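Protein in question quoted for reference:
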Amino acid sequence: MYGLRLRRPSHKRVAFLVLANKGLCEGGRVLAISRQRKEELVAQYTQFLENADGFVVVSTTGMTVPQVEALRAKIREAQGQYVRTKNTLFRIALQQAGWTVPEELLNGPTSVAFSEGNFPGVAKVILDFITDKANAVEDKAQVTGGVMGEEVLNSKQVETYSKLPTLDELRSQIAGLVVQPATGLVGVLNAATSQIVNVLHAYVQEKGDGEAA
């Protein structure tokens, strides 16, 4: 499943997640930045996007600095990076990197969590973080959608992707194949195939329901 990559010339793709954050400007004011800084940010965003294969948008309202840092740490553990972005500049970077700009997902201040080859794992980390009552952010954050390849996803479709095996889980399964007898190999392959089929079925059904509506 991690082979779902856009084949654009010279572009190595990596998954990334967008987190919309409200109230991040200082004193309620949007601080102006210099032209040089804008160019630096566009270059930074473009560099990340050149290695991206998708992203998840999470709307967050009122998350504290410690909560944001805790989420950043979780994303880093899943081989991801968390970057706050400016929508106008991020749109420019998306265009320069050859991405479809999902206008409906870029409302308000945003942040992006980039994931190198572990999109399901990073999506799962964010969803688990939001639903974990110990983090106290369930009323401050929610997944609003995302993009995988060139397709815009809704929140339920993002959740479906998060149920796929993570990169570490796949590595463990592959390592297990080396020491398992033939019957064990068949069992692992059947289980993996069944999980993928179930996820894809849920995705197709969700997409069909959306088109019917």
